[in-house]
Amino acid sequence: MKTSVPRPIERTALVTGGTGLLGPWLVHALLNQGYRKIFVLARAKGKTSAENRVSEALKFCRNGREIRGADKTVQVVCGDICEPNLGLSLQLRNDLLRQITDIFHTAARTDLNAPLNALRLPNVVGAENVFRLALHGSQLNGHTIRVHHVSSVTVAGNLQGWFSESQFSCSQRFHNAYEQTKFEAEQLALEYRNKGLNVAIYRPGIITGDSVRGTTSGFKVIYQPLRFLAHNLFNEWPAREDAPLSLVPVDKVAEALCLLSWVEYPLRGAWHLVNPEDTTLGKLIDVGIQVFGCHRPALIPAEHFNKSRFSLTQWRLIGPFVPYLNYRVRFSSSYTKEVLNKAGFKWPKMDSGMLGKLYRYCGNSGFIRPRSIVPARKTFSSIFGRTR
Questions:
Q1: Is residue 282 part of a domain?
Q2: DSSP class of 300
Q3: CATH for 163
Q4: Are strands 244-245 and 199-204 parallel, antiparallel or unpaired?
Q5: Residue 331's beta-bridge partner residues?
């Protein structure tokens, strides 16, 4: 199997999720890595057009600066992955299929506490709409359209030990509907491979802010527990000190994904976009204490934690994150690492300097209020607002 990263003369991409957490960073990476033209699929929202939403998302990645030449290389397409043919007219669909060589499917709904029926449409049906479109285009125009499907390491569910790039269905159970729908989308990807679709699967670890400034447009997964920590909301956490967490900056995920997209023959398993050096939950907490000057909660493994010590409101807050605060699965990435190393790519170390950068952005952005302005008598509603 070839592991080189060739550079064809011209590649044209369609990116879904152009206003999401990863999509805008991926557009920048594709431009930097030689893609000739990039179509970005997005929806209008309220009175804000798809074009304006994408423009603002792209500027966010560049600290408010426009992309030079973006008017020629980036074109916004108003559509919706939840609709057949992505909600495009027949003429626009066929025009796109004649041009694009690659589809990067990053769009998904990532709510950890959303019900299954709310997530299946965007995460499973949406993925199949993309796969079906690409397969139709490959058959219609006689040139292969490659799909780069962004999944998640959370498809490992409740497994323990090592989860490899070649593993898919291992009788795992899932902690939430998000994990289950990402798994179901992977199963669809495998089905479409058997139908002849060239589809690569990418499983990022826990995506954080970027490696340069720590900026993020989505405060999820580790960020909410960090908020609990900074404001001393819980004296005890249902968590494991040694829980391994693979943290990957969003800009580096986009760069790695883009580099791997040039591989002529991708592996039959999945690319694991994970940091070879895991960070433990204990380390995340220790750095948080240094940055925010907060108290260290007692960490008690979930299986030994007395749930009656928390109110219903407290469990609503921390409950969705408990599986990840007690993680016991690690992700091998030997083949992915080999290919990325040959391309000169390295994951940054998640040391105290990098973590501090991510944490300080939380304060600079207002996600975590400086301690000096936090009311002396903190309540859940004053810090988080109403809970669902």
A1: no
A2: E
A3: 3.40.50.720
A4: unpaired
A5: 163
> Whole-model pTM?
0.92
SS3 38: strand
What token pair was written down for 325?
A: 């605060």
CA angle 118/120/123 to nearest 5° reads: 110
Cβ-based neighbours of 321, under 8 Å, separated by 6 or more: 112, 221, 224, 225
3-state class of 358 per DSSP? helix
Asked whether residue 109 is domain-assigned, the answer is yes
Assign residue 65 a region: left if phi > 0, alpha if psi is -120 to 50, beta otherwise? Answer: beta
- Using an 8 Å Cβ cutoff, are 205 and 273 in contact? yes
**383 in a structural domain:** no
DSSP one-letter code for 347: P
40 with 65: CB under 8 angstroms?
no
∠ CA 126-128-131 to the nearest 5 degrees?
A: 115
In a domain, 222, yes or no: no
Series of mean pLDDT values for 10-residue runs along the chain (388 residues): 52 95 96 91 93 93 69 89 96 95 96 94 98 93 91 96 95 96 98 94 97 94 94 95 96 97 80 93 96 95 93 93 95 94 94 95 89 44 48
> Cα torsion at 317, 319, 322, 323 (round to 10°)?
-130
Alpha-carbon distance 377 to 231, whole Å? 11
Q: How far apart are CA 138 and CA 97, in angstroms?
A: 8
Cβ–Cβ < 8 Å for 299, 241? yes
- Helix (H) or strand (E) holding 41, with range, is strand 37-42
Q: Which amino acid is at 339?
A: V
Q: How far apart are CA 124 and CA 181, in angstroms?
A: 6
Residue 59: name the closest of 204, 209, 211, 217 by CA. Answer: 217
Instruction: Give the model's pLDDT for residue 203.
Output: 98
Q: What angle do CA 48, 117, 328 make, to 5 degrees?
A: 100
- Local structure of residue 75 (DSSP, 8 states): E
Specify the pLDDT at position 268. Answer: 80
Which domain, by its residues, includes 25? 12-213+247-277+329-349
Which residues have CB under 8 Å from 341's CB, separation 6+?
A: none
Number of structural domains (the chain) is 1
Contact 104, 261 (CB under 8 A): yes
